[in-house]
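Researcher: Next sequence.
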Amino acid sequence: MFFIISKILSFLTNPLIWVITLLAFAVFTRHPIRKKIFLWSSFIFLLTFTNPYIFNVCTHSWQDLECKSQNKLKKYEIGIVLSGMIAYDENTDRILFNSNVNRITQAIELYKKGFINKIFISGGSGSITYPEKSEAAILKRYLVKIIGLPEHDIYTETVSNNTHENAKFTKIKLSELGLSNAKILLITSGLHMRRSKGCFEKEGLMVDIYSPGRDNERERFIPSKLIIPQAEVLLNWNSFFHEIIGVITYKIAGYI
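Model: Next structure:
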């Protein structure tokens, strides 16, 4: 039920849905003043939520955690990678990566550079239509068969459907592997890190964290980042609102 509710909330917090809803009200209302209000509101919303500068300013403090750069990393026995980066096309047996793909690419880089000895991928299906397809299992196969990493250096947890379960079932799996006291590096996206770190620490797993850097301060003021609308920013806002709601609901539920 929690999984279904999270999907519904993700849909409702999408700024594009808000814009479309306002436009629909403008089309169907017969009141001229209300029509203008709805039209102008949709236009303002669209400009606001496609502006990269506004998005970067709003999310900067949210990502202001002590995420380590590579030159400050220690050696870790395990790098835990949280899923949420692929869609799987069963008909063509093809993996489609989304904007969170840096979670796994960074893990590969850290592994090859010797910062982490093992890669642990946590994640079940994350899909309502294909609940039997574990993302962690699909990614492990990709790392072994396509990237060429040794299978014995990749662990998986394949049943979790959300961040709370990522932490819960990862702890169980680590205990089964005799790695409860291992030095752990948690690898996930910057927006997702606050909730993820809270969940793992709630489960008693002390982790260091590693995620992509925030936006470059100087680049904020170039025209393409300051005033030119960008459609993909709408998706980023959806992810940001999803995390805010996630943290609030997880605190209420006692997950962090």
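Model: The beta strands are 76-82, 86-89, 94-97, 116-122, 154-157, 184-187, 207-210. The two ends are 19 Å apart (CA to CA).
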